[in-house]
Amino acid sequence: YGAPGVEFVGLHEENNTVMQIHFIPDQCQLVTLLDDNSLHLWSLKQHSGASELQEEHRFTLKGPPGSPPSATQITAVLPHSSREVLYLGTESGNIFVVELPSFRVLEDRTITSEAVLQRVPEEYSNRRSCELVEALREHPKNPDQILIGYSRGLIVLWDLQNNKATHHFLGSQQLENLYWQRDGSKFISCHYDGSYTQWPVSSDNRQPEPLETLVPYGQLAGSPSSIPGFSPLLSHHLLTPCLQHPTETVGEDYQCWEQAEHSLLEYGMAALNVHTLSSPFQVLVMELNDEDAEHVVDHAEADLLQDQEGYRWKGHEKLKTRDGPVRFEAGFQPFVLVQCQPPAVVTSLALHSEWKLVAFGTSHGFGLFDHQQKRLVFVKCTLHPSDQLALEGPLSRVKSLKKSLRQSFRRIRRSRVSSRKRRGGSGNASEVQEANAKFDQDTLQEMELAPVQRKIEARSAEDSFTGFVRTLYFADTFLRDSSRHCPSLWAGTNGGTVYAFCLRVPPAERRMDEPVRAEQAKEIQLMHRAPVVGILVLDGRSTPLPEPLEVAHDLSKSPDMQGSHQLLVVSEEQLKVFTLPKVSSKLKLKLTAMEGCRVRKVTVANFGSCKTDDYSENDLAVLTNLGDIQIISLPFLKLQIRYPCIRKEDVSGIASCVFTKYGQGFYLISPSEFERFSLSTKWLVGPRCIVD
Length: 692
Hints:
It is built from 8 helices and 40 strands. The protein has a domain of 199 residues: 7 Propeller (Methylamine Dehydrogenase, Chain H). The chain is mainly beta. The chain has a 4-stranded antiparallel sheet with strand order 1-2-3-4, with no helix packed on it. α5 runs antiparallel to α6. The protein is 12% helix and 37% strand. This is Lethal(2) giant larvae protein 2. One of its GO terms (cellular component) is cortical actin cytoskeleton. It comes from Phalacrocorax carbo. One of its GO terms (molecular function) is myosin II binding. Keywords: Exocytosis, WD repeat.
């Protein structure tokens, strides 16, 4: 479990939305809840040389004759550690107990809302009914106790043996979820307004008072991962990846990530190391630590305008930094913060883990930061004198990405909550579709930047956002002459300009004593000034330079530094190969023959043979704004095949698409669902795994 490529698939006969999934402890079984209120029991069974999820039973909870549908509408599911029963919380506030695997209802063990309210203070029970059951959690140390959370804020610790409440906790905010601390001494309640509260569980029956209530910045918590002792198991907001692991196993998880050659996790490695916060105007560099730590986060500022005359920033001020040490849990811990001036959205990032360098770009320019010496190496302003629109604050076409995302997720969240309260099949599905459509229209369309509206023709240097930095790339290659290679940094802009800087990185023994130095060596201007979306260097074998971290860990071959290198520049309209170090044009492939075709994403994919392990080849996978994917050979830029993949009207799907380096890809089909595809015959999306 948790290793790359381990997956199993089951398909419901019903065409209904899967609302919840719960594992039966230690049984290789799980239970699913659909939006038609049906429960399904699945088991892992071997079939045709692979393990598959096979449906064993299905069940629909029925109420007494004449009772409303809400009486048995399931809202929370708890598989008990005994593996014998499920506890089912409902909209009516009642909790039903069903036997496994038969799904027989044990009516004498039902926990009614009336029984719960008998122990609640009169003034509270008169003021509020229990309403629906929002969360059920088994006590981590005592299987005879469960925590029951009701939507209006009431929380009860219930004794299953004596069928009575032992503690009640009176919350004032709408409840979203509950989490136990591992030793059972306290728990956290998470609330609709983004706040969460710690509650102690005493051995006596005193009325518990909350230890503390916290409202995180931007009210975007649902996850208590910042509090020691709690595991981050669920995130209600999808701004950042949610890691599902106990904190003490983070070191093992990292080893797993190092081996993640065929999985989506490989794509997230750089994002975990160099990560733009939910405030997208700063760069945070993080390192992995398997122990808690308390330290000061160093702070640096990068002035991309360099006090140039004629430029005046009209946007918001930079965020203020916190002074003094900060305590961090085990895992990825920030150790340095770089703030760009002006504080515009960070549009591109590149990390070189061996050189200890990070490059960052905005709509005003790009910079290089030495995170070992914690020193700014250089900045380069890319603004054109006429590009005043980039100085208006957050990009006008993007508006405020943070604000838009937050508003869209709140709309979706409100829709989910309201639809759950009156869930009834088709109404719920239509509301989800409406929320998804609103998300697509309001948010991800705003993420599509100026190039969407550009025509396929020569652009003027006076077009808006020409200095917008689209891509950054590190390479050890021949930049000055053909006899000596050196570290280099490449940057591509929205105006079709490519900048190349020679870097001097001191050897390891003098790395902290001597500064990293940079000097501009090349500047290439594409004739049609089309936005540069990708830069790549091919080694002497015409193979793309491997990731330095993979070479250091013997996961990739070292590059060929004997033969001549080549530079590949991918713009929205064409792919062009240049010789190095002279940077003379060698060959090109235009993609504008098809009307309105523009490159949106490009990556190098390694295609292995499905018949032998001895053969593989590197090609380019190119996603266009028409939603098709073109496979193009290297280094001769011959079109191999073209696949229609995403509907051209699906702007959000195209904008969200990512590739793995072995020819698989993912894109969003709704705010909370992704589609997976494979371009490779070797790495099919069909799982072939076996569980003993």
